[in-house]
Amino acid sequence: MTAISGFNKGHSGFANPEKARSMAHLRKFLFVAAAVAVSSCAAATAETREPPADLCSLLPPAEVSKTLGQAFDAPQTSVAPRPFPNTNTGTDCNYLSKSGNKLWFRAYVDSSPAEAADLFAKLSKFYGTPKPVKGLGDEAYFDQEDALHVRKGKVRFYINLSTMQTFNPTKEKQIRALASLVAGRL
């Protein structure tokens, strides 16, 4: 029986020791490349985790109070209406302060990021000219009432702060900080 090209019986599988070393290096390289690919997939999966069943838990009252600089009670929770027929209902979380201020957090979980993006675009037309916000979720904007709309993955949420003050220069910054907390949990 003749040896198969590059193979020789009785040795480590290769007639040429240099070729054997090259194959060993290639195997190591492929192993490292596979490990990197698996790690990357695991990291991507971790970034797109499922939202909690209790959407109000994305914005705990302690963090609302700390960010807004005043005490807010636990949210009053209710079902948010479907924006269009055959879409999901959402969750309304209304936080009230002793001074009469109200924070309204509304969240929807759609069946996919594509559906959420489509609904986000359709709904933006109802709120006047949107003022885009960069670096928050997958997309975000302030509406004409200074409420913030954000989409991250398949979750869309809205934050609106109603204050007893007629002018609050830090309101936009506070709402962005709250939205950043929520987006970081999605």
* Widest sheet, order of strands: 1-2-3-7-6-5-4
Alpha carbon gyration radius: 27 Å
Mean pLDDT: 83
Shape, per Cα inertia axes: elongated
Largest β-sheet summary: 7 strands, antiparallel
* CATH architectural designation of the largest domain: 3-Layer(aba) Sandwich
Characteristics of this structure?
alpha+beta; Protein Transport Mog1p, Chain A; elongated; disordered N terminus
Explain this structure to me?
The protein has a seven-stranded antiparallel beta sheet, sandwiched between helices. It is built from four helices and seven strands. The longest helix has 31 residues, at 17-47. With 186 residues, it is of the alpha+beta class. The protein starts with 16 loop residues before the first helix and ends with a helix. It is elongated. The chain folds into two domains: 1-47; 55-184, 3-Layer(aba) Sandwich (Protein Transport Mog1p, Chain A), CATH 3.40.1000. A hairpin with a 6-residue loop joins strand 4 (131-132) and strand 5.
Outline of this structure?
The chain has a 7-stranded antiparallel sheet with strand order 1-2-3-7-6-5-4, with helices on both faces.
Secondary structure layout plus pairing:
Elements: H1 17-47, H2 61-68, E1 76-80, E2 90-96, E3 102-109, H3 113-124, E4 131-132, E5 139-142, E6 148-152, E7 155-162, H4 171-184
Antiparallel strand pairs: 1-2, 2-3, 3-7, 4-5, 5-6, 6-7
